[in-house]
Amino acid sequence: MTAFQPIRDLATGKVVGVEALTRFVSSPLKSPDQWFREAESVGRGTDLELLALETALRAAADLPEHLYVGVNLSPRACLDPRLSEAIRRSRMKPRRIVVELTEHSVVANYADLMAALASLREDGLRLAIDDACNGFSSLRHVAMLSPEMIKLDRTISAGIDTNPNLRALCAAMVSFATEIGSRLVAEGIETEAQLALVTGLGVHAGQGYLLGHPSVRPEDWTQWKEGWGRT
């Protein structure tokens, strides 16, 4: 099943999008990371990613219509022709979908990846680089793929109120994102101090427990139409 976590515009406080987070109901309980690792170990990693995508897009039909939906996918899943088929079969318009490319995934050939996503991006699908500033790969992804969004790794938010170096890094990323025409999203915001700092530095949007917990309940999703109501 899918939980959605709200993403808020930091200038207005309004929810502008959500991130789709896969949840598994099982006994004994396993984390989503465990499920995906086990699927990968038996050669079914991409199959599980695409199943999670289809599950998320079905659930997203109950979201307020103005929200975009961020879905996490590996480069390999993006290269799979079933991705386009799954999106076109869904009730979600490509302009409401943001593919969040995981930072730790290796991209063997950027030209192939851009070609695989070209048609969907022409139809309005957007690309985000996830966990940016958590490793060299993320900056290379940004440079080569021209994403519409950059999601700052949660370690930046977690230490931004105590570490001046992280504040400087965040400020530099704000300038960088503005220069290349990308929107910057800060992940992992959990305190008012962190929120005040990333907002003051000019980060466009934010996500974290302070701004809203992940929820599988449609009645929570309906509260994200406007304002700062937090679940």
What does this entry show, briefly?
The protein is built from 10 helices and 8 strands. The two termini are 19 Å apart. It is of the alpha/beta class and 231 residues long.
Set down the secondary structure blueprint.
Layout: E1 2-9, E2 15-22, H1 32-41, H2 45-59, E3 68-73, H3 75-79, H4 82-89, E4 97-101, H5 110-122, E5 126-132, H6 136-145, E6 149-152, H7 154-159, H8 164-180, E7 183-186, H9 192-200, E8 205-206, H10 218-221
Parallel strand pairs: 2-3, 3-4, 4-5, 5-6, 6-7, 7-8
Antiparallel strand pairs: 1-2, 1-8
Helix pairs in contact: 1-2, 2-4
Category from helices, strands and their pairing: alpha/beta
Order of helices and strands: EEHHEHHEHEHEHHEHEH
Rg, rounded, reads 17 Å
Number of strands: 8
Estimate the global geometry from the Cα principal axes.
Answer: globular
Q: Helix proportion of residues, in percent? A: 40-55%
Ends distance: 19 Å
Give the low-pLDDT segments: none
Largest sheet: 8 strands, mixed, barrel
Strand composition percent: 15-25%
Major sheet strand order: 1-2-3-4-5-6-7-8
Query: Treating each run of at least 4 consecutive H or I residues as one helix, how many helices?
Result: 10
| Averaged pLDDT | 92
Structure, explained:
With 231 residues, this protein is an alpha/beta fold. It has 10 helices and 8 strands. The protein has helices at residues 32-41, 45-59, 75-79, 82-89, 110-122, 136-145, 154-159, 164-180, 192-200, 218-221; strands at 2-9, 15-22, 68-73, 97-101, 126-132, 149-152, 183-186, 205-206. An 8-stranded mixed barrel has the order 1-2-3-4-5-6-7-8, surrounded by 4 helices. Helix 1 packs across helix 2 (45-59) and helix 2 packs parallel to helix 4 (82-89). The model has no long low-confidence stretch (mean pLDDT 92).
